[in-house]
Each structure stands twice: as structure tokens, then as C-alpha cells.
Amino acid sequence: MKVRQLFDKLIENWQVKAVCFVISLFLYVIYQNQSVDTRVFSVPLGIEAKNGFVSVEPSPRTVAVSARGRSEDLAQVRESDLKAYLNLSYVAEEGSYDFPVLITLSDSASVLNPLEIKVTPERVRLKVEEEITSYVNIEPLVSGNPASGYAVKKVSVSPDQIAIEGPRSMIEKITSLRTLNVTTSGAKRSFSSKTKVEQKGIFIRHEDLEVSVTVEIEEMSGKKKFTNLPVNFKNIPANLELSAKTSDVTVTLEGSLPALESFTPPDNFVVADASKIESAGTHYIDLTYTVPKRFKLSDDFTKSIPVTFTQRKTSDTSPSAAEEKITLPEAKVYEEEE
Fold this sequence. Notes:
This protein is of the alpha+beta class. It has seven helices and 24 strands. The protein has helices at about 1-10, 15-35, 70-75, 105-110, 170, 255-260, 320, and strands spanning about 35-50, 55, 60-70, 80-85, 95-100, 100-105, 115-120, 125-140, 140-145, 150-160, 160-165, 175-180, 180-185, 190-195, 205, 210-220, 220-225, 230-235, 240-245, 250-255, 270-275, 280-290, 295-300, 305-310. Strands 2, 5, 8, 11, 12 and 15 form a six-stranded mixed β-sheet that branches. Strand 21 (about 270-275) and strand 22 form a beta hairpin. The longest helix is centred in the N-terminal third of the chain and has 22 residues, at about 15-35. The chain is rod-shaped. The termini are far apart. About 15% of the residues are buried.
């Protein structure tokens, strides 16, 4: 009897009760939809491989990860809580494969529930090859010109080899790697410079080490011509005087170009000894040159010059005048400054 009464109570005004239930369900659905939100994250795409195979094609830098869940839960999720990667560890031989984009959550994000995750694209096609290691030479890259009169004698690098890793087909084509540029512009002495080794594309890897490039600079040898040099006369006889001489005196020196560029012949560089002249007139006098030890006299030099002497006038017959002589400074030996 009681069961019958309870049943009658339940079906009493059942139309009204049904309408109320539908309305309640509708309101619940609306509430749930209003409390659920969606956020899209741009997540870096990594590659994992533990079987000796690597990709030889570029993969997308990022993927779009769509997370759906309650608004208050999504507010706690950060991009760093999501990790997207391709796993190459199951590849057994070289070839092209479609790899699924895998997503993992951090511990703090994985406890959020419900949280629906969707990634775009879902799969990425890559070509993979065996990864190998090779030792190649390091070649120093040097540019620029040393200072005038100097030249690069030798360039060396230490260490001179480096280990590189990457896809077999790419590594087999590489025999050497260059350093980053080292300039010798204006250099006057040898020097060493620390620099890096070039990166040969995104698939070739090597240790990011510093190498030492040593550049040996040397002075260049050459010649320089000096013209119109003054002549220092000595030992002119007392009864003669110099009336005419040529100024066309030329000499060519050999030696270090920087030293030649900075060298200025002194006054006593060219000497003419007139001790053998006995009479007035034009005579050829041999020239001597005081050449510093760091230079060498080339064959291209003036060996002698014509000089004209006249008889000295002796109008004053006093003993003092008769005995008067012209004294010229003796030529001094020019020594190179240390």
C-alpha cells in the first residue's frame, strides 16, 4: 500500500515534473558550457633519439597545442607546462617516416581534470639517417693587410682538429671547418687571437670551444732609391776652391722596407775626397757612402761626379793670409741607432 502511494505521488502531475527536469538539465548544460574554456599554446617542438639516428630535414619549430578545461584550471597552465616532441627511437633503418607529435604535461598541469589536449599538426614527416662522428681539420680564416712593409709569414691554429657529429651523408662531405675571421689589418708584429669555429648548418654539431689563431708577421725586404743627395767634400787643397758640382747623386739601398721608409740619409752620408786633386779644372771624384749595417748598397748608385775647381785668389799677401786655409769638417762614420 505504501509503495503504491509513493508511486502515485511520483507520477502525480508528472507533466509539470518532466518540464522542471528538462529545464534543470538545460540550465546545467548552460552552466557547464559557460565554465569550460579553451586556450591555445605555441609550444617548441623537440626531437628525441636514442638509437643513433637523426633527422636530415628541418622540422616545425613550434606546434599549436589546444587545451580545453575549466577556466580556473586553464588559468594555472603555462606554456612551460607543455612539452611537444618527436621520438625517433623506434626507427630501425634510414628512410622517411611520419612521426606523431607527442605531448607531456608537467606534474602541476597533469593533476588538472578534466583537461583535453589537442595538437596541430598531429604528425610530422621526417627523413632520418644514421648519426656518425668524424674528426676534421680546423683552418684559420685570416683577412686584412698588415701595415705597409710587413707581410704574413705563417698562420697556425691550436687545436688543429675538432670532432663533429651529424647525419652520415653530410658528415662524409666535410673535410675541414674554418674559424671565424681574424683580421691582420695594420699589424706590425706577430700575435695570437682567440676565436670560435664556424657552425656548418643546423644538422652538424660540435663542441663550442675556443681556438687560438697565431699569425706570424715579418718585415718585408725591398729597395728604396734616394736622389739629389748632398755631397760632403773633404781634403780640398788649400790653393783650390770648389766652383761647380753636380747635384745628381743617387743611391739605392736594400733592406727592411719599414726601416727604409723611416730612414733619412744624414749630411755625411755621401763623401767626396778631393785630396788627389792637384790643379784647377773639372775632375771626376769617386764617392763613398756611409751605409748603416742594417742596409746593403745596391748596384744602382752614383759612383763619381764631375767637380770643377778654380785657383784660389791670393790678393792678400800678408803672411797670415798666405797661410790661411779652408778647413771643412771631416766626414763622420754614421752608425745605426740601436
